[in-house]
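R.M. (postdoc): so does anyone remember the format we settled on? I'll just put the structure tokens first.
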């Protein structure tokens, strides 16, 4: 704020104050200036309203319109936007995350039917786009193409972004359901013989995104029927169990190999899987635990805790059944 502004405020010079207000209303401010201007404007009363108009809250309809437009750019459902392209999409994703932080108005926007429809459409588009790009790999003669890999990894990173955003909108169930529906096709492609020794970044990123799905379901944030949960785990547990030692081995062979499951990722996935298993019906638990103990890669994930709990529950269930039968047998017969 200029000395003239401060003098005008201090001496109540109306003409100077009016000129200063007009000036401040018309020029841009940086963050530091904004704080000073707001402090000074608060002392001016109604004459400062033109200044305050820049920072006043927008109404629901306008906020919703901005959010919907940003989401369409963030998910590319608005179509390409030359010359900005990925830069605009990344900016839109960042701003959506910012808007979804705790704010008294955002819950009203995120439960709006139109907003939910746009978000679900964006999610569907992202998944189908990723699947399409992934499927095209098997038709490529040159699997070493860096451009191709970067493009596919970007699609998976967009899905990763979605997995961070949707819980704040209570739509993570849609992500998990679509992930489960497409998992068989995704795994069929990445485990194809043609991709056996390439696309390590993609394979690691799949584990990272899958980890968020396992956490959402395993810790009860997304509620799904038991058979659906069994389906997800039986698809992804063998893949994770196989990829972990492969990535470790590649890292040991090549010091510069960047694709390795770090300790935090390993622990979070292992914890989610243990919780996931323990929430299944006992027969399904037994099936998964038996398969785990037969596998060569039984070291990861370590399901010892789940196995111990299953054993305890099995004994307890048998004891309760025996006690219930004894009570029936010993019940007095009334005539």
């Amino acid at each position: 704020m200029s000395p003239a502004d401060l003098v005008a405020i201090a001496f109540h010079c109306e003409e100077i104050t009016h000129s200063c207000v007009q000036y401040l209303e018309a020029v841009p401010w940086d963050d530091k200036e904004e704080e000073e201007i707001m402090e000074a404007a608060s002392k001016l009363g109604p004459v400062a309203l033109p200044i305050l108009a820049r920072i006043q809250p927008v109404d629901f309809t306008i906020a919703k319109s901005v959010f919907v437009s940003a989401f369409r750019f963030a998910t590319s459902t608005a179509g390409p936007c030359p010359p900005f392209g990925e830069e605009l999409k990344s900016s839109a994703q960042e701003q959506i995350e910012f808007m979804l932080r705790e704010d008294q108005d955002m819950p009203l926007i995120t439960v709006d039917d139109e907003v939910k429809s746009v978000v679900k459409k964006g999610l569907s588009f992202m998944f189908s786009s990723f699947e399409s790009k992934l499927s095209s790999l098997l038709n490529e003669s040159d699997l070493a193409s860096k451009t191709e890999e970067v493009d596919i990894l970007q699609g998976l990173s967009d899905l990763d972004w979605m997995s961070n955003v949707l819980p704040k909108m209570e739509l993570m169930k849609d992500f998990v359901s679509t992930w489960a529906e497409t998992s068989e096709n995704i795994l069929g492609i990445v485990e194809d013989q043609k991709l056996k020794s390439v696309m390590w970044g993609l394979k690691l990123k799949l584990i990272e995104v899958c980890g968020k799905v396992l956490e959402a379901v395993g810790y009860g944030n997304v509620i799904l029927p038991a058979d659906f949960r069994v389906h997800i785990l039986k698809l992804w547990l063998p893949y994770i169990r196989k990829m972990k030692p492969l990535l470790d081995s590649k890292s040991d062979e090549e010091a510069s190999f960047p694709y390795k499951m770090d300790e935090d990722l390993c622990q979070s996935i292992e914890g989610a899987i243990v919780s996931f298993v323990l929430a299944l019906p006992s027969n399904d638990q037994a099936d998964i635990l038996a398969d785990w103990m037969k596998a060569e890669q039984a070291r990861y994930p370590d399901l010892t805790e789940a196995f111990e709990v299953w054993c305890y529950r099995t004994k307890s269930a048998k004891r309760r059944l025996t006690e219930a039968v004894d009570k029936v047998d010993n019940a007095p017969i009334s005539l």
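R.M.: ...and that's the designed sequence above, right after the tokens. Also worth knowing: The mean pLDDT is 82. The two ends are 98 Å apart (CA to CA).
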